[in-house]
Specification:
181 residues, mainly alpha, Arc Repressor Mutant, subunit A, 2 strands
């Protein structure tokens, strides 16, 4: 889809700027589009963006307890339990007794998750490349740096999407079922 957009330079605060000249509107517009298209691209894999984020984190911190994961991602433990329950039903994670704390469970990726993650990362990489097609490598690097600064200023931990704070999305399993009982 191609749009003809006139670049507006009327950015002085207090002026009657159109929405297309407001950074907050543009970030919201693009964020909505990116979130919707990313979810649609992950759906055939049977996962949602919040699943992808948690699986990516687990790959780096496999064996952490549910509480350690919740703390690291800054989400409530009840939300973490729901996400892990959903991933466990999809045979993507398993809970094992923690080796040093019998009251806790260590979370591990399953073989199915290890096979799924490279495919999901390719989806994410292709999606990002398509979104950033109009930008050259230097512009992409600058954009990422500016967005990282804004994320830090907003108080978000690095690499943690605020969507992880929500209960698990009910995306469809690869077998076509909804994942609900």
């Amino acid at each position: 889809m191609t749009y003809n957009v006139k670049v507006l330079d009327d950015s002085a605060p207090g002026t009657d700027r159109p929405l297309a000249g407001r950074a907050n509107f543009l970030l919201s517009q693009l964020g909505f589009h990116v979130a919707q298209t990313f979810a649609a691209r992950l759906a055939p894999l049977g996962i949602a963006p919040n699943h992808f984020g948690l699986l990516m984190h687990l790959q780096r911190c496999e064996g952490d307890t549910q509480q350690q994961l919740a703390d690291a991602l800054g989400i409530h433990r009840k939300v973490m339990v729901g996400l892990l329950d959903d991933l466990e039903q999809r045979d993507l994670v398993e809970r094992r007794r923690h080796p040093s704390d019998r009251r806790a469970h260590a979370i591990h990726l399953t073989e199915a998750a290890r096979q799924l993650l490279p495919r999901a990362r390719r989806v994410a990489d292709q999606h990002e490349d398509e979104i950033l097609t109009p930008l050259d490598a230097s512009e992409r690097a600058r954009l990422v740096a500016v967005l990282q600064r804004l994320a830090v200023h907003s108080g978000y931990p690095a690499g943690v999407h605020p969507g992880l704070h929500q209960p698990a999305a009910r995306s469809r399993h690869p077998d076509g079922s909804s994942g609900t009982a």
